[in-house]
Each structure stands twice: as C-alpha cells, then as structure tokens.
Amino acid sequence: MVALSGLLVTVRSAKQGAEMMVNKLGAEYWREVSTLRMHSEDMHQLAVSTGQTVRIASSHGEAVVSCQEADVPRGVFFLPLGPVANQLFSGAHTDGTGVPDWKRLPVTIERCETLAPALPEVSAAVAGAARAATGESATTGTGETVVHSNVVCTFCGCLCDDLEVEVRDNRICKVKKACLIGRNKIMHAQSNAPVPSVAGRAVTITESVSEAARILREARFPLVYGLSSATTEAQRLLIEIAEIVGGTIDNPSSYCHGPGVMARQQVGLATCTLGEVKNRADLIIFWGCNPLEAHMRHLSRYSSQPRGLFTPEGRKGRRIVAIDIRPTPTTKAADQFIQVEPGTTFETATLLRALVRGVRLGIGDDALVAGVPLPIWRELAAAIRSCKYGVIFFGLGVTQCRGRDLNPEQIGVLVREVNDYTRFYAIPMRGHGNVAGANQVMCWQTGFPLAVNFSRRYPRYNPGEFSILGHLARREVDAALIVATDPGAHLPQDSVQYLREIPTIYLEPHNNTTTGWATVVIPVAPAGIAAAGTMYRMDNIPLRAKKLVHSPYPSDEEALRAIKERLLHA
Amino acid sequence: MDAVTTTVTLSLKEVPPVPVEAESLIPEQVAGKDEAHIGRLPLLVGKVPETVADWFHVSVSQTAGTAEGTAEGTAEDAGHTALVLRGDLTRFKRLGEGMSCGRMVVDGPSGFHTGARMSGGSLIINGDAGDFSGAHMRGGLLVIRGNVGHYAAAAYRGETKGMRGGTLIVAGSAGQMLGARMRRGLICVLGDTGDVTGFNMKAGTIIVTGTSGARVGARMVRGTVVLLSGAPALLPTFSYDCTYQPVIWTLLHRYLAQQGFAPVVDPWTRFRHYSGDANEGGRGEVLVRDPS
Amino acid sequence: MLRIAHGRVYDPQHGVGGEIRDVWIQEGKVVAPPAMVDAPTIDASGCAVMPGGVEIHSHVAGAKVNTGRSICPEDHTDHFRLHTDVTRAGCGYTIPTTFMTGYEYVRLGYTTLFEAAVPPLTARHAHEELRDIPIVDTGCYTVMGNNYLVLKVLSDPDEARRRERMRELVAWLLQATRGYAVKIVNPGGVENWKWNQDVTDLDTAVPPFGVTPRQIVSGLAQAVEELGLPHSIHLHANHLGEPGNVDTTLATMHALAGHRVHFTHLQFHSYDITQRGGYASAASRIAECVNAHPEFTCDVGQLVFGPATTMTSDAPMEFRLHHLQKQKWVNVDVEMETGSGIVPMVYRPHTLVNAVQWCVGLELMLLIRDPWRVFLTTDHPNAGPFVAYPLLIRLLMDLDFRRSWLDRLHPQARQYTCLHELTREYTLEEIVIVTRAGPARALGLPRKGQLGVGADADVAVFRLQQDWQSTFSNPACVVKGGKVVWRDGEVVDSGAGRALGIDLAAGRQLAPDLAECFERYSTVKLENYAVEDEYVPDLELVACR
Known about the structure:
The complex is a heterotrimer of chains A (570), B (292) and C (545). Chain A has 570 residues and is an alpha/beta fold. Chain B is elongated, with a radius of gyration of 20 Å.
C-alpha cells in the first residue's frame, strides 16, 4: 500500500462556517469537515480520485476522510478545522505555548477501503448520543412582522452592523445584507436548542444551576472556559465565578489569536480601526488569512472595495497583496499572490524587516526565502516603504504557523519600523464575534487577556501553564464550566477525552458536539438574537448587539448570575 | 561550596492529582528547622493551602558533631544545608525558586519553574524538569540530568530581559526558546534543542552539543551561541564571516570539564563564525562547528 | 444618620479651615446638625476631616488604558489584591485593573474620578470599564480636537453658521458618548500624523480642510461657553513633551485669553530649550501667565520617579517617545476621530531630563498662587501612578523633605530649574483645595468637594501622623454617599458609584449633511454609534450654566 507523507494544515472554509451555523451534528457539516484537499498528483500516487476515502494518520491519532482535488502544493494537505481534523492533534504538543501545530502536522496518508467516511459513527463517537431537538420558541401569535434594521451580526470579528432581520410571530424569517455564514447563524439561531440535563437526565433549569454550583464548589482545581461568542456582560460573570472558585479562566484565543496578543506583550502593536483602512489605506497585505471564506464581507465593507474619505477610487486605488501557502478566493481577488512554503512566516517577516531598512543580508540575490525569489520580496519591501497608509491583516496562517507568537512579534517589529517612513499598521483577523471582547474584559478585570489563574486569590498569567490545552494535557483540572464555545469540535481529541472524564457544566444555545456528553447542560438564549449585550469587533470597536426575539431560556448572563448566587449563598 | 552539615530529606507520599506550588521548598526555608517545623511549611495544592507534612515524609539528619536544629528555627547558615526531595515531582512547581545558597537535589522529575529566579547555591534535578526551569536565573548552578521543557532559562511574558547570571546545564535535551532574552550567564545542553535557541539574546553564552532546531539566534542582539553538531539553516540576517579556532571555546571546554560535563569535542575545534541578527545590530555570533 | 465627630474640618468652599466640628450625614447627603439625635458616630478626634478627593484627570478606563494593561503583564505581577468577601481581586502598579483602581483611589480618600480621554467610537468601552470601577463616582471627557466632523464644521467660512453648527455638533457628541466635558488633545496634530506630517504648530494648516489648531481650540472653547457646560474645554496643547514648547503653550494661552480653559498636565508643556537642545524649566513663565488669567485652571501632571506608562491620544508624541525608549510601543489610529499611543517609561532622578521635569511640576504648583486654579495630578499613569499622591503632598507641604529629594537629583538640574530657590510650603487647607475643592469647582460639580448642607456625603478622615505622606497614605475612614466604604485599613463596603453626565436638552441631532458624511465614511451605522442607557445606569446629570 502506497503511503504518502506530508504536512496537514487545518483551515476555515466558507462551507464549513456556513454548515457549522446550521447544524453541528448534521451530515452537511460532517461531510465538509471530512473533506481533505490534495494535489492531483498526490492523489494519483495514492491511486485515489475525488470522493474516495483515505486514512490519514499522525503520531496522535487517525481519521478516515474523503479526498478532493484542489489547487494546493504537493505534499501539503488541507482539512477544515473541526472534529475530524482534531482526531489527529494532541493538546500536549504545543511547544509550551498552549497552541497546537494546527498549520503543520506531519501525517501519512494511505488509501482506505471504506467506501465513504463513517459519518454517523464518527459523529457518535465524538459527540455522544444526540439529544432530541426541542426548544422551539413560543410564537406570539399576533401575525405582525417586525423589521429590525442595523442589526449587529455576531458570527465573526467583522461585526457587520447593517443587517436587516425580519421577525414574525417571534420567529426570524428573513435576513438581509448578511454574508452566507451570518445569515445561516441568524436564521438557525432559534432551532435545535438542547434540553437542560444532568448526566443525560432531563431536569429543570433550576436543578441544573444547583448542580453546576455544587460541582464548582467541590472542585480543587476548576477551569472556566469559553467566552468568545458571549456578550461582555456574560464574560464579566464568568471571570467573577472563576475568581470565586479559585480556578483558571481561559478563552479560545489561547490557541488561535493568542499568539498575537502575546506578541503585543513583547513589542506592542501599531494598528488602526477598520474605518482608517477604508478611508486611507492604499496598500493592503492579507497574510495567512482568507477573508473571502472566513470574514466574508471584510473586503466589501472595509479593506478592498469601499470608496473612503481619501480613497475615492475604491478598489482601483489600492494595491492588494496576499501571502499564503495555497491559492484561495482571497489570493485570486488580490493584485499579487505570493505563494510561500508552509512554516516560513518568521523568515519572511525577518527578511522584510531587513529589506525595508537596508540591513546586511547573509544570503545571495539568487536565494529563495520562503520558497520565493529575493526580487519579489525586494519589490514588496519597496512598496511598503513608499505607500501612504499600509495595513497588514494577519490570520491564523501567521499565529498558528511554526513559531506561533514569534511570528506576530516579528511582524509587529516590522510594522513598527516601517512607521519611520510612513503610516503602516497591522490588524488581526479575529475569528469569533466577541473573542476580542473576551480579551478586553479579561484584561480590564484581571490584567491579562487569557490563561489566568486565581488559585492564589489574585490573577496570575502564563500561557502554556494556564492555557486550557496545557491544563487538559496534564490532567490537572477536576471540573470545567464552559460557555459560548464547542470544545467537542474544536479541541484536539485527547483534550476532549479528558474533558469527558471530569464533571463539566455547559451553557449553549444549540445541540452540538459537546451537548451530547457534558455533565450539566443548560440551554441559553443566543447572544445578539435573543439576548442583548456588548461585543467587540476585530479592531476593538464595541457595539451593542440587539435582542430580536424572545427565548424561553435564560441568557448566558442570567444563567451565570444564578450559578454565582448559588455558589455564594447556598 | 560550603560544607554540608544538615541534610533535609522529603520523600513524596503520593502523586497529587492537581498541581502543587512549592516555592517554600528551598534550602533557606528549611535551614535550622526541625522536622515538625519543616512539616508545617506551606504548599498550595490546587487552590487549597496545605503543608509539607501532608504530602511528604520529613527527615532531618546532621553530619556527626554538629548542633541540632530547634523547634523555633535558628538563624543558621542555609549555605550548609542540603535539601533533598524524592519522588515523582512532575506536578510540583517552583521547586528551588529564588534560592540563594545551599544545595538542593530532586531525585525524580520536577515541574514548571524549577529553579526560576535562583541567585546562588546549586540545584540538581535527577530527572526531567518542566517548562520555564531556570527562568530569570541570576546566579548559582542548575543541573538537569534529564530533559528540560520549553522556555528553559527564558524570560517571562512581557519581560525584555531574562537570565542574568549563573549556569544551566542540561544533560538531556531542551525544548524551544532556550535562553530566550538572556543577558548574562552560561547555558549548556548536551542533547538537542528545539526552535529559536537563544531567541532575542542580549548577551550570554549558549552551547548545544546535539542538534538545534530552526532559527537559532533569531532576534539576538549580542551573545554567543555555539553549535557543536553542524548547522541548521540560519536566518537570512546572519552572515558568514570566517572559519577559525575561537579562544572562547577552549575556555568554555575547560570550564565544562571542571563541572563534569565536558563535551565530546576537541577544545581546539574550528568553528564557522556567523554574525547576526543584522536586524538587531548584528553584534551577536553563532559559532558552528566546522565539519572539516 | 451618621455623625463624624470631633474632627478638624476642612471645607474651603465655606471658609472652614480646621475648626473642630461635627459633620452630619443622612441619606447620602450632608445635613445640618439635628437638635438631639443619637446616631452612629465615627470618632474623628485628632483627625483632619475633608471632602472626598476629586480626580480631575486620570487614565483609568477605556480602549487605550486596557491596551496598556494588555501589553504590560510585567506591570501586574508584583502588585496585586486578593479576592475577599468584600472585594474583587486585581493587580497592576501603573495600570491597575478596574476593581483595583477603585479600591486604590478610595485608599487615598478619593470619591470622584474622571477618565481623561475617550474617543467617541470607543465610548461604550470606557463606560463598561467605568462601571467596573467600584465605589467612586465617575465620568469621562470626550476627545474632539481631531474629529473629522469638527474640522469640517470649523472650515465653514460663515461665522454665525459655523458657531451654531459647532454648538450642535459638540452637544450631540457629548450626548452620544455620555461625556462630561470636551477634551482636546494635540489639536490637529493627530490628524496630521495620519498624513505622515511631522510638525503641528498653532497655525499649521491641517489636512484635509486646512483648519489650524488655533481655530480648533477657539471654536471648541466658544461652543463650550455658548452651551454653558459645567467644565471648560480640557486642553492638552500641541508639542507636549518637547523642549522649548513653552512658546506654543504661551501662544495657546494668549489665543484663548478671556475664555475659560483648563490646561491639563501643564508640567509637560512648560519647557524652555537649552543651547544644546536640552530641557530647561519654563515654569515661572507659565505660572506668570496663569496667575494673570483668572479664567484659566490647570492640573500639574507631576512626575514621579519610578515606572510609569505613557498613554494618550497624542499618537505622534508617543511615536517620538518610542524612539527615545526603543521598547514597546502601541499606536491606534481611530477612524474619523483621533488616535492613541502607549509607551512604558521609567523616570530616574539621575537622568537629567527627568530631574528637570520633576522640578518643573513642583515649580508650577509653588509659583501659581491661587490654589483654586492649580490641581494636583500625575496625569496617571503618564507622569507617574496616582498612588504617589501622598508623597507629592508631602513634597508640597514639607520644605525639608523637598530639599532632601533635591539632593538626589542629577547635579546639573539646578542650572535649568529654580525649585531649589522656592521656600513656599502648602498649608493643609491649600492641599484640600488642590485635591478636592478646586477640581470640584472647576468641573462645575456643586455637590462635590465641599461639606456644606446638601453636599454629597463623600468624606475622607485622615488621622494626623508624623509626616504628611503617612497621613495621606491611610485614611482612618472614607465615607461615600453616606456609607462607610473604608475603615481600619481596608475596604468595608464595595458598591457601585454613579455615572456623572451633563444635562443637555434631550434629542440632540446630528446635522443632515454631517449624518450623511458619517454614514458614508464611518464603518458603524449612526444608529449604533451613541452609547445606550444600559451603559450608564444610576446616571446623575449636572446642569449647564
């Protein structure tokens, strides 16, 4: 049997995002996150064609996926992030940072005799038994249609605030102006709510709150985790609870954009708000990100199309460069696509610093850096120096690339140094709707943006040591309160396995890969749909998300307040 | 090194299920105290304050002819005290943190922050040690006979300068970010190292006998990294200067031999000299053993 | 009812300067002494009793403060507070977390606190943080000096129309942001920075409209006066921190003569330039001008040796500072409005520049004669942390102590300063004015900073100790809104303070052409811009004049 070795890279795709919002336990979602993109020659070597299955294995686990031919480099394979990819990762391998090798996992691939990826079995194995979908919201029965305008979409860090949502009889029936993912999120926000339960047994909300408080009270080293899709009002309560129980509090930026946050602690960051990009930027560099699939209105609202105050020509007045390891819709929309080898972000940033300042190089003019000839980098460095207002947008291709926080650190120094010549900034492409808010609230209340521990009754910080993946890998925590995230799908399989061994309390509006096994499940009203509250955009602008419909369930804030009261006064 | 007159031995009763913060376990804290008193030293087990006696068997033995300690604890010179810990101490953090004198030995693996901020004395780990071991060391000798984790002898988050003095010797391998942001001191690893060895060094010396990962000396300002097993590709901001026999190597070899860790490489070896990181001024050096 | 008995009461507003008398409190207000009532009593014998402190300028809440916290974890590690039954945990020395900020201010006897600079686009964030600062009443100032719509309106050649539109725009911006006052930071200079232009003087034409800083400060000062706002414009002038900036500061003062203006952190704006381009004190020239203009108030921004974190909307200034420091630097350009920058610093007495700066601040405090017009601040955390106030009070009151500090300075500092010649010592009454009564009056807060009948029951009681620093470091008791919040060295009650805003006529609208401009060029919808009621629960509105 031919076995092919190479690197696995996890990515977002538009379909993965869109289906995630419809049903995390549905076939469409699982099909998309089980689809491995490969170069046609690699597939030929394995004697497989599009749609056929292969077994992919790393040193931590294996999965069966179906392959799809794609325009990607040889020896590099792409799988959407999610529960299938997570079978291959380990939360113990983070080089002490709390961030796994999401963008460069060594794997081997073999043809597999299974006809199709075992979707139902895989989903059952990971998600546990699915709960019956109930929780349809009561209708008001008056027949009136309310149109909410200037609605804030809470899916991604764009936080588009111009949506129109039609509600009839307390049901959302139409969404306008949103991207596909945002529309799916809002249209499906009211369906598929979990049943409040303890150990699989249906209970009342009050009983679930009681049990949650009991679990937290008895723990010796509890974990509070999540936050990134909750309002800041709910996030504040989560921090308070972590403080009361003397545990660790962490959020998903810990393994996503946390490296960017850590880099800021070393070098700072020169940045601007999105409106400055719209109004002034004449050079945009998308580095390790693919907004056309993950932040779908970013280019039209902020970074590419808009005619701004001082950019009346719109798209034509901007030069757009995309740096990535494979072609994507974003690279195709750019004026220039620089295709780099995987794992070379740090080398690229190092070289650009040197070229911008004319510093001595130890390589010849015929050398390649990141697999790209020097003249291309020289030209980019010259364009950076001579632009009027340049902005780098960086994504997980930078923060999760080999070197992790050192990549945005080196980019941060580059950006700082270019400011000797012109205005030049960087903005992180924050993924979730309020992960920027999670970092903000944690900072103003605890002093630190992630990985904070309260065992000594005051906040202490250390990524790796107090990151969720570090705690889980070392099997240190003995209870977990999880809100506004889906660890069953997004954490490595061994981290999820450990979470399943300890008591967990889970607040969540929809059935997903975690509701099937969490010890206590509390359904909550989805933020920005049935609960108002504050969210922070990727550039840290705060907006108020509205309440559009009523939910029979408490908001995160209300549920957490109830848990806190039980903790303090039981 | 002061003559040891008192040996305090703590034997772990059982491995705790949660992390333990054990910064009270340094020679200064046990010097001149009797077993009961030592047993009352604090440990933070998860979030619960407990004591040494809850987790360790404590025994104090005197070298013949010396005075015994008292219940109160006299102001005896901690420099004459040896503190020995036995057991699987992987979950124990901050062992030896901030110690300034005396001798401490861990017979077994130790956890995060082993010997962090130590300023004197010697700390020997007869096993693996966790991440951030030796972080911000200021003096003394830290020897890890097994492997050490990531960020060994590195700076904590937000700090621009790390290790300021002392010697770290790792008989096994080290992870990434070894000696990151150090400004003085000596680090020697007999095994391999991970990526970015010597990241953003301000000064100091790092010797790697085995293979080193990618991006050695990235962002280094000054300082010396000596690679004895050939060259990984250096960053584009490192330039080759010459091949020569550096005196510093002869001196380092002699020093390490005195400590009992002589690298199996000729003291008069020739090295290829690279200057870098040019982005930070280019006054650092990476010496790569010349294969010829 | 609550009685604070037998203390030496200092209430400069009412001419009370240390007489032994009781202060009676009921339902959160100071009341006249009742005929015969048995009430819980705090024995203030041997203590000074004064109104709670009023912090007129501090950076404690909002986007740039929080970015400062996030980039400086090392600021937090050694300074922290434990979680207790009454108080939340916290940490930070120069940039304390929100809970810690409230407790530390209360520990100094302060009960009212204003965040000095809030960009409208991030006002929601500032208010979220202010809600998490416990106990003290809070408010914030809205930055307008580089606002695109302000510049647009100022470019209107028709004077009458311009003034009317400025009034409407300023009122709308304040209402939308729930701001208490108009803040101006490096007028025109931050906008210039975005165009990669270096120098902004009072008469520099700033793109895109060619409006000058002179026009900006005059236009905003007029609008504030015409609206009758309780506080004047709060001005951080051009060329902060640069040697020789005294000329710009004096020119700005002359441009605004006759208008109420509050010049903030004046120490940073009071430098002469030496022959070699170094720093010398121009405090006497500045003090002379302030003394001659009773319509001006100022706060000093006194340097404190040790760590500090500079953070300001003055982005170009921070960029320059970064080049001197070569460490971390943050810059955030905020669309259509302003910018910000952060650079951590350490001030040292043997660094000549810092020694001169330290002298400048104290010279200003000693040479400006009217304590009702010069207030004690450190522009926290720019010149130093507010926790240093007791030290600064002792430096002002105790000449011998001040002289001992002069000996620690770089020996050449004497050549460029005159502090060593000044012998004035502040009286306790004057300290009460520069930390409470004066700021309250300048802010137009009638019920703060004084202990007459009807005043808010915010009272600080200090046991007199061997030196003034010790006295002011640990109040015997602090009362906020009639409740004892600090006693015996700790916080005993940690409720929420109130939000302080201005009572402008409701329903202020943005002019249609400006609204259209906003909708087209901002990236948030106008409907989502203004801060909603939920962010300012317990709002108290102060009337305009």
